[in-house]
């Protein structure tokens, strides 16, 4: 992954044309659509057209429909009779308990089936540190969103516990849009600095092989972030992206 959005139509079409199986094509479509929703390429309330997406991706509507159905089960889409498929709204109150559960699961990441430290993992987090430094120098909402997703997946690699990874991923994608929808443009540099500071702290813990410390750092930052979100005023808790 890079700082750039990798969900552009041409990139997706290339990936799908190179896929070796129907399951791989499904996973590509599912992941791309999920990222577009969570990066607000498709803001809340957006109506998705099966016909347009099938044409864009160069696939039939049947495998695409499967991806949309799973995204609906994830709570990111909603099918309404006579209206179509819509991107769901983001409601902090509705997702508060999901966020609280994420706090506990992140701490478990440092204790359940920890992955043995290795050079590959250290290199991965060093790359994230470099991206964080660039983002601090030039705060950008889309780059922030991409880095947030990529950092989550890197953090997932600290544990080899597959059920924990699966549950954590579902919950992450339920809540990760909250930041983009609630952060006002004037507050973006501050939030970027806080988030990038977290990445650097965790990268240092990973370099030392202390995954429990990394997990505690992650939990602390999630808790502080959640409390900042809860204090957002009604005016700043609208669903504008900036």
UniProtKB/TrEMBL annotation:
Domain HTH gntR-type stretches: 23-90
Chain segments annotated as transmembrane: none
Protein keywords: DNA-binding, Transcription, Transcription regulation
Source taxon at top rank: Bacteria
GO molecular function, one term: DNA-binding transcription factor activity
UniProt xrefs under PROSITE patterns: HTH_GNTR
UniProt cross-references to SMART domains, sorted A to Z: HTH_GNTR
UniProt-listed Gene3D superfamilies: GntR ligand-binding domain-like, Winged helix-like DNA-binding domain superfamily/Winged helix DNA-binding domain
Name of protein: Transcriptional regulator, GntR family protein
Organism in which the protein naturally occurs: Roseibium aggregatum (strain ATCC 25650 / DSM 13394 / JCM 20685 / NBRC 16684 / NCIMB 2208 / IAM 12614 / B1) (Stappia aggregata)
